[in-house]
Structure formats: C-alpha cells, structure tokens
Design a protein that fits this description.
Layout lengths: L6 E9 L19 E7 L10 E4 L4 E6 L5 E4 L1 H8 L12 E6 L7 E3 L8 E5 L11 E4 L5 H12 L1 H6 L16 E2 L7 H8 L8 H18 L1 E2 L9 H14 L3 E5 L1
Parallel strand pairs: 2-5, 3-8
Antiparallel strand pairs: 1-2, 1-7, 1-12, 3-9, 4-5, 4-6, 7-8, 10-11
Helix pairs in contact: 2-4, 4-5
Protein name: leucine--tRNA ligase
Family: Belongs to the class-I aminoacyl-tRNA synthetase family.
Length: 257
Amino acid sequence: EGVGPQEYTLIKMKLVQPYPEKLKFTKKSLKNKPVFLVAATLRPETMYGQTNCWVHPDLEYVAFKLKDENIFVCSERAAKNMSYQGFTTKNGEYEIITKLKGQDILGAKLNAPLSFNDIIYTLPMLSIKPDKGTGVVTSVPSDSPDDYAALTDLKKKPAFREKYYITDEMVLPFEPIPIIEIPDFGNLCAVTVYNELKIQSQNDKDKLQIAKEKVYLKAFYEGVLIVGEFKGQKVQDVKKALQKKLTDSKEAVIYYE
Ligand code: A2H
C-alpha cells in the first residue's frame, strides 16, 4: 500500500426483481428508489467481463440513502467514508435504512454496467476483507485470479453452493469472457496463471498473491482490449476513459480511502 489515498471506481450494480427480503422497503420515502450493491474496483476497463458479484456471507453490510436518492449497499465503514466525500446530504452523516449480513443478499439478481451478461448473481467469497473498499467485489474471472478461483470453487463443489442456497443457474452458465489480450498470457490471463501455478482453491493465499503479481503490471502495460468501444487499444491508454464513461453515465462513482 502506498502513501496517500487510494482511488477506486465504485461500480453500481443495480438490484433487479425479485428483491431479497431484507432489501424490500415499504416506507414511502424509500419505495421505488433504485438500490445498488456497490463494488470497489481498480480495474474499470475489465467491467465487460463481469460474471457475478461477491459478498462475504458473515460480514455486516448497511443500506443507506444518498443525496441523489439512490440506495447503496456496502460496509458501514465505506458508508461513513462516502459521507465525507459528498455522497450524502450532510457531511459526515449517513442514515442507515437497514443492516444485514452478506448471506441475506446471496442469490440477489443484479444488472452490472458494461457486462456482457444481462443478469448476474450475488455469490459468496470468503476472502473478502472487511476493511477494504466496500466489502462488495465485482467478479471478473477472466482477469482476476481471486475471482476465477472463487468461481471455480463454487462450480466444482455442489456442497459449497448448497450451503448458501446458491442454485446451479446462478453459477454454472457463467464462464470467464475474453476481454483483454496480454502477450504470453493469452486472453484469459487469470485462467492461465491459475493453471500454471496449480491453484486449488480461493484459500491458496500464497499462490494467489503470486498470480496477482504476475499479471497485474503486465496487464496494465501490455494488455490490449479486444472488446467494446476501445477495442484494439492498450489498457493503460483506456483505463481513465472507461472510468469516465462509467461515471458520466452515472453507472459508477469515484471513491477514496
Ligand atoms: B479488482 P487493493 Cl479484473 N476484499 O477489481 C478483497 N478484495 C477486494 C476488496 C475486499 N474488501 N475490495 C476490492 N477488492 C478487489 C477487478 C479486478 C481487481 C481485476 C483484477 C485484479 C483486481 C475485478 N475483481 O485486483 O488491495 C477488487 O478486485 C487485484 C488487487 O486496493 C479491487 O480491484 O489493491 C482490488 O481487490 C483492490 O485491491
């Protein structure tokens, strides 16, 4: 971690019907307000490849209303940070609508910006850190070794799915999507390193750390988008443009911590 604040792009993943019980609000001031699970990412240029959303089943999350009347779901720590970054009506204040556990929103159906999948599902990831970002992570298994490992665990282990009431249709149809070509790593770099390092599961912390180090800088300096409106351009040249496209269309916001 460097000095000074880290900038994240917060991806707004819109909840679609049927809503989970805990996110059904009947109060007049909340009814029909859009609800988003918000995921902190360093890689806005990979959003074409989103296949699911991750939450930690045992972590606590809050829902709170922004000054633009959107409702965000994230960790309370992130809500507090956002309240100091102009997201809420009063600086430093945020009104919690409800508290919930990650397990309460598993299986929730979402609409994720730019994703080639129209609908994605909220699934369990056990390596989510409570003190980073929003506690919600968007999953891009083509380019993130952590995401590929966690998705593969769910695919390989029916008992893991059953434990959290995750149905086959929420997991099995979703495959990593080729979106970025990297010399020596092909167009599914996370899958390449996962296989090379013989990673067994999302608990293989040391190998996953090595996997991330192997691909991260290489993706930035040598990766080329092979889909979307910036097709043919280098990651380092389009990262900012894609972040701007997402924030201009209000599908994402910038967040610091
Ligand atoms: B990244 P840094 Cl394609 N716990 O987004 C665990 N991981 C978290 C998290 C949390 N609370 N909050 C965010 N993250 C993940 C995309 C991506 C990411 C790709 C490739 C690499 C990558 C899709 N997932 O991150 O510690 C988010 O996953 C590699 C590090 O602040 C976020 O970006 O550097 C990244 O970790 C932020 O991690």
